[in-house]
């Protein structure tokens, strides 16, 4: 179901010259690598948003101007129920402010850590919502490259995506080996994520980063006998996260048609508790 546009934060309005005085800033929602995120309200419309504050000094230090601008333009243009909206941005002399859709239920990471691991119905619902978001992104020539639990935020119903930097557990073989990577990068990480949702730990976890890389390159994937994970779920994981040859990985469309997804995922992305 399409979400209503916020009254004052439409795409046209994103070009408006927003300033900090247009917003009331509330409690902090989290801290990222390059700044803090706050709950905020646009004063005139009373529309609730998340406000990401990035310090220019940090962006300059890591020479990330171009990357940040590109990511902002991409995110601003994407429109999908499972893709977090960026409504607009503005800056002052030291900070950049991103006006983001507020994800009410926070990080999937936190929910998983609290639960330990998810049921097959929960995991399949999240994987299906994310796959639908990725199909939309790929159709628009966007490769996410950075899918991981911390980047997945939850609204009241399903999962949404947002972006930060990579962690080794989720690096794909072609990135570790420094080969050029393509859309199948996202398919690999979907398999890895599916494993972690079901078992509560990532599949290639190791003591050091080097050992994690080794396990990834050797596709050292094993399924513990805990949590009663079904063969159908393992089949989906193997067809994405155990294949070094990216061309053999299950396509996103085929993931949605996979019997495990068809049987377990909620059709509207509403995650069972
Ligand atoms: P980031 O800088 O994007 O890594 O964000 C840091 C943290 O702030 C995230 O891990 C979330 O806990 C929180 N956060 C970021 N964006 C939002 C949002 N749009 N809605 C709710 N919480 C958010």
UniProtKB/TrEMBL annotation:
SMART domains hit by this protein: S_TKc
Q: What's its top-level EC category? A: transferase
Q: Which GO terms describe its molecular function?
A: ATP binding; protein serine/threonine kinase activity
- The cross-link Glycyl lysine isopeptide (Lys-Gly) (interchain with G-Cter in SUMO2) sits at 148
Organism listed in the record: Castilleja foliolosa
The residues that hold ATP are 33, 52, 56, 101-103, 150-151
Task: Specify the Protein kinase domain's residue ranges.
Answer: 23-261
Against InterPro entries, the record matches this protein to: Aur-like, Kinase-like_dom_sf, Prot_kinase_dom, Protein_kinase_ATP_BS, Ser/Thr_kinase_AS
Protein family membership: Belongs to the protein kinase superfamily. Ser/Thr protein kinase family. Aurora subfamily.
Highest taxon of source: Eukaryota
Q: Which terms are listed as keywords in the entry? A: ATP-binding, Kinase, Nucleotide-binding, Serine/threonine-protein kinase, Transferase
Question: What's its catalytic activity?
Answer: L-seryl-[protein] + ATP = O-phospho-L-seryl-[protein] + ADP + H(+); L-threonyl-[protein] + ATP = O-phospho-L-threonyl-[protein] + ADP + H(+)
UniProt-listed CDD domains: STKc_Aurora
Q: Which residues form the active site?
A: 146 (proton acceptor)
Give the enzyme's EC designation.
2.7.11.1
**Mind telling me what this protein is named?**
Aurora kinase
């Amino acid at each position: 179901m399409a979400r209503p546009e916020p009254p004052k934060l439409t795409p046209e309005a994103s070009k408006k010259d927003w300033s900090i005085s247009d917003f009331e800033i509330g409690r902090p929602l989290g801290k990222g690598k390059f700044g803090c995120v706050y709950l905020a309200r646009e004063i005139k419309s009373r529309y609730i948003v998340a406000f990401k504050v990035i310090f220019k000094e940090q962006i300059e230090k890591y020479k990330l101007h171009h990357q940040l601008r590109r990511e902002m333009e991409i995110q601003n243009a994407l429109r999908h129920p499972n893709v977090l909206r960026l409504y607009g941005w503005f800056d002052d002399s030291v900070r950049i402010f991103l006006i983001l859709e507020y994800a009410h239920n926070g990080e999937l990471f936190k929910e998983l850590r609290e639960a330990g691991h998810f049921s097959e119905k929960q995991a399949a619902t999240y994987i299906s919502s994310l796959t639908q978001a990725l199909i939309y992104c790929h159709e628009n020539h966007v490769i996410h490259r950075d899918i991981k639990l911390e980047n997945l935020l939850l609204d009241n119903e399903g999962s949404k995506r947002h972006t930060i930097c990579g962690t080794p557990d989720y690096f794909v073989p072609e990135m570790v080996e420094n080969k050029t990577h393509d859309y199948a990068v996202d398919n690999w990480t979907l398999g890895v994520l599916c494993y972690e949702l079901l078992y509560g730990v990532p599949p290639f976890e190791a003591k050091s980063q080097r050992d994690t890389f080794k396990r990834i390159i050797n596709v050292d994937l094993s399924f513990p006998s805990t949590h009663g994970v079904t063969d159908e779920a393992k089949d989906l994981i193997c067809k994405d996260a155990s294949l070094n040859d990216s061309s053999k990985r299950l396509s996103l469309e085929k993931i949605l048609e996979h019997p495990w997804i068809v049987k377990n995922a909620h059709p509207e992305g509403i995650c069972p508790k």
